[in-house]
Amino acid sequence: MNIPLWTLEQLYTLNSPKLSADLARLDEKTAHFTSWRTKIKKALPSPNEFKALLAELEDLNSLAHRLSGFAVLAFTQNTQDQKAQAFMAKIDEKMADLNNELLFFELWWKDLAEETVKPLRQSQPDFAYWLDRTRAFRSHTLTEVEEKIINLKNTTGNNSLIALYDSITNRYRFSTRDITETNVTQVTRDELMVHVRSANQTIRAAAYHELYRVFSADGPVLGQIYQTIVRDWRIENMRLRHYNRPIDVRHKTNNLQPETVEALLNTIRDRISLFGEFFKLKAKALGLAKLNRSDLYAPLIEDKEPLNFQSGLAEVLAAFERFSPIFHNLATKVIDEGHFHGRPQSNKQSGAFCYSIRPVDTPWVLMTYNGRRQDLFTLAHELGHAVHSQLANKHNIFNFQATLPLAETASTFGEILLADHLMKKTQSISKRSNLIFHLLDDAYATIGRQAFFTLFEISAHEMVENGATVDELSECYLENLREQFADNVEIDEEFRWEWVSIPHIFHTPFYVYAYSFGQLLVYNFWRQYEKEGPNFTPHLINLLAKGGSAAPADIIATSGLGPLDEEFWQKGFEVIESLLQELKLIF
Ligand SMILES: [Zn+2]
Asked: Which residue in 198, 234, 400, 559 could disulfide with 395, CB within 3.0 to 4.6 Å?
C-alpha cells in the first residue's frame, strides 16, 4: 500500500465552474438572508419563522465552510501554488465581509429580553446550546456600529500587527554553518529545529544558539509588537467590553469558570518538580551530569528501521479497535474515502492537522508519514480528531466542533491507546522505556510548558499595563524558566528571548492553557478506563458525541470524579507519577 494522497475533486477543483457557481450562490444566499433584518426588527418572528431563519443561516454557513475548507486544503497541499494562494486570499476577504453582513442576527439575538428569548430557543432544541452561548456574551457586546468599526479597524490594526509579526518571523533564515557538514547554510525555522532532536549535544546547543541569535536581533521590535497587541487586548476587552481581567475573555470563550483554570494552573505549579525529577532521570539515561535546556528533546535511542505505512496504520487501528470498534471504523473511513494526505511532498505544509469542514463530511487529515515512531503517534493523534468530529456529526454546523479545552480529548486519548497497545506488545525493556520517555516528553511539553507560558502571559499583561520595557519582560520570562526548571536543568541566558518566538501568545492570548487542561483531563479519563475497562468506553463516546455542546458537568460525569478543583487535577498527575516510577526502576 502506497502512502495515500487525498483527492480534493470531491469538493472542487481550482478551475471548476462549480467553484465559481458556488461563490455566486453564496452571494445570493447572503443577500437573501439579510432580508430578515427588517422583518425581525419590525416584529418578533414566530417559532416557525425562527426555524426557517436558522435553517437558512445554517445552509448559508454550510456553503461558506465548504468553500473556505477547500481553500485551506488546496493551499496546504501545495503552499507554492499561486492559484491556491490567490483563491485563499479571495476567500479570506469574502468571509470577513460575510461575517459583517450576518452580524445583525447575532446582535439582535443578544439584545432580546430574557422572557422573549425563552419560547424561541425552546422551539429549536438543536440550536439551543449555540443560541445560549451566543447570549452569554451579551454584557460584553457593543452596538452594531461599534462592532463593525472594531472589525474594520482590526483589519489595519491588531490583525495587521499579527500579520506583521508573522511576515517578519517567517522570513527568518538560519545559518547551519556550525551545525551540519552539508553545503546548505540557510534554512527555515522548521529545518533548524530538527537539530534540537539531534543525538549530538553540541549540535543541539548550536541549533538553539542560532535560533536565539536571529530572534534576539529583532527582539526589541518583536517585543514592541507584543506590547501593542497586549495594550489593544486590554483597551478592547477591559475598557470597552468590561471584562475584569485580560484572561477572563478566554475563559468565557472556553466556557470555563476562572476558578477551574486557576485550580489547574496552581496544581501544575505545585507539581512542576515532578518534571524536574524526570529531567534528572533523562540526564542519567543520556549519561549526562545534568540536562541543559537545549538537551530537553534529546533522543534516547535513534529510531531504527522505519515502519511502512500499511504496518503503521495497522498498529494504530489495532490500538483503536481494542478500545472500541467505533473508533476503528471511523478512523478507517478517513483513509478509505480518500481524505488522507500522508505522502512526503515538497511545498506541502509542514506539521499535521485534521480539518472538519461540515458535520456531513468525513474530516480531512494531512501529515507527512516517514515511518518514524513519532509519525505513528501523529497518525493516532490526527485520526483521533477525525473520530471525535464524526461522533459529533449529528449536531448542526455551529456546535459540532468541540470547544478548545475539549478539542484535544480524542486525539490525545488516541495517542495513549497507541502507547498502551505498543507497550503491551513488546517484551523489550528498552522499547518499553523508550515509549515511556516519549509519553513523559509529551506530558511536559503540553502540561508543564504550556501552563508556564500562561503564567508568563498573566504577568506580562499586567506588566505592560504598568509600562514595562521589553527587557523587563525578558527578565520576567527568564524568572519563569528558573521557577519551572529549578536546579534540575541548566538554562542559558539566551533563552530569555524564547517568548518572542512563540506565535500563540501573539496570535491568541491565553490560548495555550487549553493544552494543559486537555492533557491532564485525558489522563483522568485514562485512569478511569484502566479501572472500569470496557464499561468506560460508552461514557467517553457520549462525551465526544456532544461535540461543541459538552459542558463542564459532562466532563465531570465522564471522569467519575468530583468538581474540577485542585484535587481533580492532582489525580491526573498520578499517571505521570506511575510512568516515572517505572522509569526509576529501569534507570
Ligand atoms: Zn491536535
From this structure: 400
